[in-house]
Model the fold of this input.
Amino acid sequence: MLLSKIIIQKIQKEGAISFHDFMEMSLYYPALGYYNALKITIGKEGDFYTSPHLTSAFGAMIARQIEQMWRIIDEEAFTIVEYGAGTGILCHDILDYLKSNKKLYDGLCYRIIEKSAVMKQRQQTHLHEKVSWHNSIHEIPAITGCVLSNELIDNFSVHQVVMEEDLMEVFVGYNNGFVELLQPASKVLKEYMAELDVQLPKGFRTEINLEVQEWLKEIGVSLKKGWLLTIDYGCSSAELYSQRRNCGTVVCYNQHQVNENPYHDIGKQDITAHVNFSALCHWGLKNGLTCCGLTTQTHFLVALGFKDYLIKTIDQENDIMKMVKKEAFLSYTLLVDMGNKFKVLMQRKGIGPQPLLGLKF
Done:
């Protein structure tokens, strides 16, 4: 049965569902949701690229940052926990780089928390050494090391709200097609906005990510000593709730094309929303995670020596012009295009304020 039919039946039986529940089913419904379907979703043959799919130099720069973190904690046994590892290519590139540091590598554990059964199967076909898989961070012993996510939080299912005379939540109904309905927002959604001190003008539409609160709470409990490194696209509250964002930030990716219609090709396209980094800092602090700094992906990569490393990885090309074009393409994509859209946030727990290489600029 088509996923759209399943959602329609649910609405007809139970009434309109929140946009949050619609997004959750669209992305994660067993066997039919976007991230659980038996299809390639990432890369040239998929619907979008992520930075690790463009070059192994991206993973190498994260590995360099991890190497510094390991030294800061006096070279103790180190655990990397990656949420939502996708195809596993970032994990592969990080481990490949760290192999050259025998002391670190010998004491290293790499643990993946994966929500998608399909992605987990793909990871297990080529990741063997040092890697274990878990359904929850609660399955992992107290962590000394780094919790990592790359393009994870933008896929957390969000609640959509619209400010009318009072705050209203977007629900999804069905009447010869999917229709949006407004219902009074819950107390929890109103409290979220109040705690971030956000006051929306009338007619303003935006998203609220409640799942990130539980995510940060779980990490705050499990991380004994170390860092949380979050890479994603988004912005601060000041920008997210500025007038130019008054229609919200939900977008869909389908065969490398962007659209704003989540009710089309259900289960066959990715649905994302911008990350609120102010909220990550706010709720992180409430769970014992102190903000080290927020920077762009551009500044993060450049600070860790991306340009020189990239040139070394591609200077084995026999065709000089091909090498120059490849270097120019990767530098533009990762340092200009994606580099300015994506942010890198680092938070710490159980460690004093040490300068981190990736935050140098």
In short: The CA atoms of residues 230 and 302 lie 17 Å apart. Residues 3-359 form a domain with the Rossmann fold fold (CATH 3.40.50.12710). The chain has a mean pLDDT of 93. The radius of gyration is 21 Å.
